[in-house]
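Structure tokens please, single chain.
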Amino acid sequence: MASAAFFAQAGNVGINTTSPGTTLDVNGAITNRETIAPVSANAVTVPANVSQVQLSGAATANVTITAPGAPNAGQRLVVFNNTTGGFGATLNGVTITNGKALEFVYSNSGWRSTDGGSLGATPVNIYTADGTLSGNRTVTQNANTLSFTGTAVNAFSVAGNTLSVDAANGRLGIGTTAPDTKLTINTPDGNFGIHHTNGTISLKSFIGSGAGWIGTTTPHDLRLESNNVSRIAISGNTGNVGINTTTPSAKLDIRNNDAAIPSLMVENLQTQPTTANAAFLTIDNTTGEFYKGQQADKVFYYQKYTLNNVQGDYISNFDTKISTSGYTLIIVGSYFDQLLAVDIGNTSRNRFTPQNVYAFQQGGTWRITADFPATSSLGNGQTVVGNPNGSWTIYTMIIRQNQVVNNTDVTVNFAGANNSSAPVSPVP
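Here you go.
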């Protein structure tokens, strides 16, 4: 059984409505019956006076569509390209992508696609066409993930080389589209690269002035660590460098808690020419501080004294003017230029006391005494004269006091024998 309700009012026709507002007013869905149009030799003709057609059959190339003119302008035609082979179908210069449907309207003696065919044949989105945002946009992911998969070197980029993702090698470039490491930052000379901050401390990298830099730009320490332990620390305020300490108290402060490991080791030092000025390092055994020895003061000095016209062979007190607080004087040899005679007043005419030359301290300086006790000089050996004055030549070594360890005196009783030994070694 079929039923229909038609109503006419003021020249308008209504279907399923008693108050049509337009020439034809339908209350309900309108169905356009689809006509199947098989493709032959990559061509197809649309039957006349149909509203919707489905292209079917196999295609081996792009399909050419022929459609007869409509009796009235404004007639609409929907074409669905359902052919196999994956090829498009073209009507009046507009190609319908395989698997897509496109609506045409008959106007100006031809079939025109809606919106230039871009909506049906090739949708406008980031997958098929470039575009421009007309305003701010937000993508709300909620619990969904968003990922991109690529295989190209510059697979994803922002503003040229501002940010570049190398999907082929798993690298990220900032300032470059060709990163050569997992993270490559390219900046012009005189610019910062990385900036890591918590709002108070700033850690930055910098390239400029022919050098690379990394460190804090705020007055905070810079530390290098291994195994989660600080190994090297640079003070942000003083610039002091500490090894195995985070509170260095000198320009280089090395702390060593393991006596079995050397604190400082220098290998392959260059040999200094003997003609160059030399300096030496001294260390304070209490504080561990190093000091540079005075360049003008050497560690060892050699001095030869020629003392002329002395009283006979006797020098009682010769003041060398060498400070006893800064140096130690050692006599290494001596020579007297006159012949000697045993004192005639001595009952033992063939015996005398041997040479006695030594250094001693007095008044803050080193002094020298020299004598052949119980003897008198005879002259130069050619002519015997009465107690002529002689000349001493004394050879000395002068050593800086901080290079000398003054041990206590050692007395050894030989007990009448001609050999013995010291109780201990005077050196370590």
